[in-house]
């Protein structure tokens, strides 16, 4: 393990930053979703969002959300471009820009033709200028920065294992096998819809297997494609008990975008504690996200390095891995001390992240300067504990294209809305 000490600021600086709510007060709720996709268009004029009429709800196959964008040069006017019933509050509909189209977006939608590996779900591509749209046969998870292909997984498996980020089927629930050889990670051509299975769950189950996998249900999550569109990362998870996340186990992998050169960066397998007695107090909503055993929120710094929160040698930190090697570095030792949704700034200097709620139900928004090891807290936002786990609103901070602004989802004003935080005076020109 490579552990390069840097000067760390044990007492974070708090810097007041201007915060602006996006959109007009109209009684409706808006959110983007996850933390590792750009929300701004390439020219900075449009900001993607989903719009719903309630802040929390029991989601299902008939609960629709509008998909669209705010025009930041026209008084934040919201333009709806479609509707979908395949969404959740954590990831939305995986709405994202297509970087090889001037104003193209893709989002997940429901299918009724019953074809393909996931007959209930597909995706829709929309040209925002012409209004033209076309359908794709698989639901996307992440699209390469080249715009040429996407990686896809089963949202049905996610609904069974991790319903916070899954979709509800409209057909009868399927009997899902533990680690099938005909499901896993798919690659789909974004023009033709042609798709192929890159890595199966059976292949992952048989790759350096451990005893805890024998009777477990397996799934894939947290995929992200490297900036150069040549490799991708993902988490392989397995468990015999969906309801208790302390009994989930994790591994962090990278691979070429054709499925070759599968590389295990971190194995989060660990001894499981005994199942608690029925009368024991229930775990808090966010207890496991703060656990030292949670392996989560991996992101690429560049084409060769991956950052993730999790244990290495049984000690949890922000760890930076050099792909296809054994080199690991702790980032923010003693300063970045809990799990968050982290990404690097466009220039690679700053880490943007957040925290889960503290004892007063507030989340921190954080910048970390990798040049001098200084943590700067730039916001503190209330979250309603009554939202629970599935309806919760993580900040999921996202950089603007020029690295001078940050966008978050938040409920601190008792509505689910998007906010822009100006960090230009901190990060510099």
Query: What structural class is derived from the secondary structure elements?
Result: mainly beta
- The portion of residues assigned to helices is under 10%
What is the name of the CATH superfamily?
Answer: YVTN repeat-like/Quinoprotein amine dehydrogenase
* CATH hierarchy, class: Mainly Beta
Number of domains: 1
Distance between the termini: 35 Å
How confident overall, as mean pLDDT? 92
How many DSSP E strands?
A: 29
**Shape verdict:** globular
Low-confidence stretches: 1-9
Oligomer: single chain
Overall radius of gyration: 21 Å
CATH-level-2 architecture: 7 Propeller
Report on the biggest sheet: 5 strands, mixed
> For the largest beta sheet, what order do the strands appear in spatially?
1-26-25-24-23
How would you describe this protein?
It is globular and about 55 Å long. The N terminus is likely disordered. The protein is 4% helix and 38% strand. By secondary structure, it is mainly beta. It has a single domain, classed as Methylamine Dehydrogenase, Chain H (7 Propeller), CATH 2.130.10.10. A 5-stranded mixed beta sheet has the order 1-26-25-24-23, with no helix packed on it. A hairpin with a 6-residue loop joins strand 28 and strand 29. The protein has 3 helices and 29 strands.
């Amino acid at each position: 393990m490579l552990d390069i000490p840097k000067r760390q600021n044990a007492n974070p600086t708090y810097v007041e930053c201007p915060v602006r709510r996006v959109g007009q007060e109209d009684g409706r709720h808006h959110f983007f979703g996850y933390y590792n996709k750009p929300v701004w268009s390439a020219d900075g004029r449009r900001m993607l969002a989903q719009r719903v009429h309630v802040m929390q709800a029991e989601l299902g196959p008939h609960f629709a959300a509008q998909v669209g964008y705010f025009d930041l040069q026209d008084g934040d006017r919201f333009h709806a471009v479609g509707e979908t019933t395949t969404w959740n509050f954590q990831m939305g509909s995986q709405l994202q820009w297509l970087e090889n189209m001037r104003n193209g977006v893709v989002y997940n939608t429901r299918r009724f033709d019953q074809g393909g590996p996931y007959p209930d779900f597909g995706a829709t591509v929309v040209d925002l200028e012409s209004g033209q749209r076309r359908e794709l046969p698989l639901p996307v998870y992440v699209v390469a920065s080249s715009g040429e292909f996407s990686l896809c997984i089963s949202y049905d498996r996610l609904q069974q294992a991790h319903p916070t980020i899954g979709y509800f089927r409209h057909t009868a629930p399927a009997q899902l096998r533990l680690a099938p050889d005909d499901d896993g990670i798919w690659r789909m051509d974004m023009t033709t819809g042609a798709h192929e299975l890159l890595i199966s769950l059976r292949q992952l189950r048989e790759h350096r297997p451990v005893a805890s996998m024998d009777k477990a249900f397996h799934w894939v999550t947290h995929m992200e494609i490297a900036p150069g569109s040549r490799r991708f990362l993902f988490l392989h998870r397995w468990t015999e008990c969906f309801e208790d996340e302390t009994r989930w186990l994790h591994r962090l992998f990278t691979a070429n975008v054709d499925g070759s050169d599968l590389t295990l960066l971190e194995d989060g397998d660990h001894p499981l504690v005994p199942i608690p007695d029925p009368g024991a107090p229930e775990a808090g909503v966010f207890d496991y996200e703060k656990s030292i055993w949670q392996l989560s929120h991996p992101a690429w710094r560049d084409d060769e390095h991956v950052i993730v929160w999790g244990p290495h040698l049984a000690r949890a930190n922000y760890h930076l891995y050099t792909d296809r090697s054994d080199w690991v570095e702790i980032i923010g030792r003693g300063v970045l001390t809990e799990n968050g949704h982290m990404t690097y700034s466009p220039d690679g200097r700053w880490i943007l992240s957040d925290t889960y709620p503290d004892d007063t139900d507030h989340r921190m928004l954080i910048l970390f300067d990798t040049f001098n090891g200084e943590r700067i807290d730039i916001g503190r936002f209330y979250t309603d504990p009554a939202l629970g786990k599935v309806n919760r609103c993580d900040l999921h901070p996202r950089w603007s294209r020029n690295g001078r602004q940050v966008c978050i989802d938040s409920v601190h004003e008792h509505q689910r809305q998007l906010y822009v935080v100006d960090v230009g005076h901190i990060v510099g020109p």
